[in-house]
Amino acid sequence: MFPTIINTKVQPFIATAYHNGDFVDVSDADLLGKWSVVVFYPADFTFVCPTELGDMADHYAQLQEMGVEVYSVSTDTHFTHKAWHDSSDTIGKIQYPMIGDPTGKISRNFGVMIEEDGLALRGTFVINPEGEIKVAELHDLGIGRSAKELVRKVQAAQYVAEHDGEVCPAAWQPGEATLSPSLDLVGKI
């Protein structure tokens, strides 16, 4: 499923999240009309996961300024998310919704479920306002992700969406030159 997920629509789901001191319903409809990032991680109260989610919390304001909402998802329940949020200084700074996926439906929809363990891989997905997946990235459980690099990828996805006919080369940063694919560029890069 994973190789074909780019440019597909997010599949329907509804779940409960812990968000800003409350339990709230979140569904695929909440991802429409704005850019979204969905970050899957294996489990609460673990080792690499809090470093990633804390890093994301540190970049959350920047992503919000870019019109992006972040959702973290694990196969834990929303109750476990609250307990972790209340007991960890790192997780306590999270302001984005923490979605519980105890049945694994959302994890399966995104192709990140490790069936034999009942856990999600480290998967990151950037979704455009139309609900289409534009970036999909998977990591082994022992390899943490960088929110700074994710911000750059979102910036590139937003730029490409707003500038028809332009593409962003490797390591592109906002303000740098882009490419306009054409026959004239073939073999010249």
TrEMBL record:
Locate the Thioredoxin domain: which residues?
4-159
> Which PROSITE patterns does the record associate with it?
THIOREDOXIN_2 (PS51352)
Q: Which UniProt keywords apply?
A: Antioxidant, Cytoplasm, Disulfide bond, Oxidoreductase, Peroxidase, Redox-active center
Location relative to the cell: Cytoplasm
Could you list the residue ranges forming a coiled coil in this record? none
Superkingdom classification of source: Bacteria
Q: List the CDD domains.
A: PRX_Typ2cys (cd03015)
- Identify the main location: cytoplasm
Q: What is its EC number?
A: 1.11.1.26
Reaction catalyzed: a hydroperoxide + NADH + H(+) = an alcohol + NAD(+) + H2O
Q: Name one matching Pfam family.
A: AhpC-TSA
Cleaved signal peptide residues: none
What is this protein's function per UniProt? Answer: Thiol-specific peroxidase that catalyzes the reduction of hydrogen peroxide and organic hydroperoxides to water and alcohols, respectively. Plays a role in cell protection against oxidative stress by detoxifying peroxides.
Give the record's subunit note: Homodimer; disulfide-linked, upon oxidation. 5 homodimers assemble to form a ring-like decamer.
Report the sequence similarity comment from the record: Belongs to the peroxiredoxin family. AhpC/Prx1 subfamily.
Indicate what this protein is called per its UniProt record: Alkyl hydroperoxide reductase C
Q: Which organism is it from?
A: Zhongshania borealis
Q: Which taxonomic lineage is given here? A: Bacteria, Pseudomonadati, Pseudomonadota, Gammaproteobacteria, Cellvibrionales
Q: Gene for this protein? A: ahpC
